[in-house]
Amino acid sequence: MAMMLCLSSIAHPRRRWLPALFVVILGSLLWPASAMRAESSATHPKTVLRFVSWKPDHPRVWQEAIERFQEAYPDIEVIREIAPHSSTAYHDLLTQKLKNRDASVDLFFMDVIWVPEFAAAGWALPLGDRFPPSEQAKFLPATIQAGTYQGQIFGIPSRIDGGMLYFRQDLLKAYGFGPPQTWEELARQAETIVAGEGKTRPALRGYSAQFKQYEGLVCNMLELIESNGGRLVSEDGRHSLLHSPQSLAPVRFARDRIMGRLASRAVLMYQEPESLAAFIQGNAVFHRNWPYAWDVSNDPKRSTIAGKVGVAPLPRFPGGRSVSALGGWLYGISTYSRQPSVAWAFISFLSSQEMQKFFSIHAGLAPSRTALFNDAEVLTAQPFFRDQFAVLRGTSPRPRSPLYPALSHVLQRYFSRALAISNLDLAAEAAAADRQINRLLKLTEGNT
Amino acid sequence: MTGGSAGRDRFRTGEQAGWWMLAPALAFSVMFALYPVIDSFVLSLYRIFLAVPDLGQTFVGWENYRDLATDPVARQAFLVTVGFVVSSTLLELLLGLGIALVIHEQFPGRGWVRATALIPWAIPTVVAYQMWRFIFNDQYGLANLFLFGDRVAEYVPWLAYPGFAWLAIVLADVWKTSSFAGLLILAGLQLIPDELYEAARIDGANTWQRFWRITLPLLRPALLLALVFRTMDAFRVFDLVFVMTQGGPGGATQVLQFYGYKALFTEGRMGYGAAISVTVFLAIFLLSLFYIRAVGSKLFEKEPA
Asked: Smallest Cα–Cα separation from A251: which of A233, A269, A274, A228?
């Protein structure tokens, strides 16, 4: 507005080209955006659906799934916007768009930990009308819970993920071991095998998992802590419990027994791909990962240990129970989408029995629909789903809060410091993290 | 525009024309520099959690700054940042001086050496730091290959040690930007007249004396300029940490800017994140004021004789 006034008050006729030039420059900066938008809607007579997704692990499978959808709905064109592979980087990009109420996002994936945030912020559309309880009952309860916030459902589970223990069947058999029940047993088995094989395989270590300062660290530590009867946050979600003895002991175990001993210290920089690489190169006896690792480690093209891999529930501490952290992705529709029904058509197609089966068989993803765990074709392709059904059904969620990203940063820093600095005063560090988390939890009290 | 003398009239229109010519640049500075700074400052006085709109957007005055002062994570990030700034800047100046002295000399193939010295500076930032991450990789990194060859069992996971991870980001930054400091210093070297050296040589000064008595004093403006550029750049380091370590392990490489980024973009704590940004801005602003006051006068007034 101020600019317009300035322009109209020009007195000298010969100087008029100057402001005119200014307008031209500004205009040329703003013009392309509007021009491009007009063009894209003119050349696509089809309904265009914009799907923001991470970079998929199985691009060809995804390509085919979307082609199948477009065959079934010829007047809809799906445009995928590919975000980074990392969950946090994807979160930052997606929420940036949603903060700006970007109408060019119709639907997206939500990590199981994002639903409270997306729901409370009003970014995700409630889907109860389209996805009634009768439909929800066909999915694993843990995944439906993950998609629900304050009694309303916001996310449709595309699959389920849970942490599981992969191991070298051949090595365990050679040394007369069965799958370990406790962490102590895992440690002893690994030490025996590494000592025995050390001369021929100097790079062999006992364990590989994800201990980098990132989201996966929270999953790994949650599994250790809860398998000792500890908790990250109290049942009612009001208090952080990191300083409790049951929560402290597993952290101490990870620091004193795993770091640089059972596992190479390098696990402090490992996310899923690096830790899986160590396993499939034959450099680890035991490995913790999500269900997709089964397909990769048994693929002779990528793995040196294909056919020698076993899988079991993760170990526990004496007196505890085996715990698998809940992971996975849910489809959500943006509040700012102008075509939620079209987005819904796409979601119900992709999460149908048939398409989940397709993803399970071709990408090795564990389905979120309970019935598929009894499906003959799925079980032929992924026989380990049968044994792991109990593990996946019993997965344990991370704390649920709209402020989860902030909680997670406190947890990540605490765990990373606890594991990386061997002479840290664990109790004091845990108490400090508790205080930070309690402050965050207080902000949303009555909101959970 | 009648009345008054013709001269004053011309002066007035001249002044007006000047303002008009400045207007586009001024408008851009206000829009893209001043406005964001003021907006960030205002934002930093509010408590805003994007994910919890129910909490509203409350004006809390200096609360975010008070929190920042007592936040142990921020304190660690501040120390990490200052340590990074001091050590990387000093090393870059020393190395840059070395590079500049070498490529200032006359020798066959100097053009090639000059071009080669600039390669690190020319490589896109993310690519360069990704490369350093690979060099320190525990399984296939060059560092381990050079040090241990095929003794795989001795391979060291460099970036898994808090102290070394910090050292690694300093090293990567020094590698990348020393040649930029070198370039600035080279420009200073070229301003020193050859006659001074000739005169010194006739007076019997040896190489060291010529360096300490002529080169270094006359190079001071260029060195200061390089110092200003490098400190300010190092203080707002972000990409390096984002690519190489993501702040880990245990927050050992988490610099202030990365902490601010996490608060703003991942946690949606707009007020607190803005307070961190404003703090970094103020730190850089004060540093540059200090430079201009304490050393800038020498930089701009004292021309080489």
From this structure: A228
Alpha-carbon gap, residue B270 to B234, rounded angstroms: 24
How many other C-beta atoms can be found within 10 angstroms of the C-beta atom of residue B3?
6
Token pair in block for residue A132: 């009634």
Write out residues 146-185 of B within 8 Å (CB-CB) of A.
151-153, 155, 157, 159-162
pLDDT in tens, A233-273: 999 999 999 999 999 999 999 999 999 999 999 999 999 99
B30 lies within 8 A of chain A by CB: no
For B20, the closest of A18, A214, A264 (CB atoms) is A18
Within 13 Å and on the Cβ side, how many CA atoms surround B164?
A: 13
Residue of chain A with shortest Cα separation from B164: A420
Report d(CA A412, CA A271) in Å as an integer.
13
Crossing angle of the two packed helices A340-350 and A59-72, in degrees rounded to 10: 120
Residue B68 CA: distances (Å) to CA of A5, B113, B246: 43, 47, 21
Of B13, B24, B160, the CB nearest to A22: B24
Q: What is the pLDDT of residue A1?
A: 34
Would you say residue B125 has pLDDT above 50? Answer: yes
Strands (E), A12-69: 47-54
What's the pLDDT score for residue A12?
A: 44
**Paired tokens of B112:** 């090639």
From the centroid of its chain, how far is CA A221?
15
DSSP secondary structure letter of residue A237: S
Q: Which residue of A has its CA nearest to B261?
A: A92
Q: Which candidate in B246, B253, B261 is best for mutational testing of the A interface (most A CBs within 10 A)?
A: B246
Measured between CA atoms, how close is B161 to chain A, in angstroms?
7
Q: How far is A19 from chain B (nearest CA, A)?
A: 8
Instruction: Note the pTM of the prediction, 2 decimals.
Output: 0.86
Nearest to A11 among B1, B246, B265 (CB): B1
Choice among A24-33, A212-221, A253-262, A289-298 with the minimum mean pLDDT:
A24-33
Instruction: Check: CB of residue A76 under 8 Å from CB of residue B251.
Output: no
Q: Average pLDDT in the A30-53 region?
A: 65
Put simply, the chain B residues between 113 and 142 with a CB less than 8 A from any chain A CB are: 138-139
* Mean pLDDT within A275-304: 94
